[in-house]
Write a structure and sequence with these properties.
Elements: E1 2-8, H1 12-24, E2 28-31, E3 34-38, H2 41-54, E4 61-67, H3 69-73, H4 89-95
Antiparallel strand pairs: 1-3, 1-4, 2-3
Length: about 100
């Protein structure tokens, strides 16, 4: 499945740890607080638990959106949809 992870986390250290968990799960950074990639259901669930352990559930916001490749290909990208320094060839492959 394709997984988007978007977050707004107040604490710098927690935000860094969440980013590290996303990268370790094989996700690609698309913007500073947005990750995208392909994971299994088990990997998604593990990532959810890892992120839950890092954040302040009373103050932080984290969104995990699962979708299929077909649904991702139907996404509409406007303007400079992604920061070019973050977009890898593998990520472009997912989007095209």
């Amino acid at each position: 499945m394709i997984l988007w992870v978007l977050y707004d986390i107040a604490d710098d250290r927690a935000r860094g740890r969440v980013a590290r968990h996303c990268k370790q799960a094989g996700l690609y950074r698309v913007q500073y607080s947005v990750f995208l990639g392909e994971v299994s259901a088990d990997e998604r669930d593990t990532l959810r638990l890892d992120i839950t352990d890092e954040i302040d559930e009373e103050a932080d916001r984290v969104y995990l959106f699962s979708l299929t490749r077909k649904e991702l290909k139907q996404a509409i990208l406007l303007g400079q949809a992604f920061d070019r320094k973050f977009v890898t060839a593998e990520l472009r492959h997912l989007l095209l």
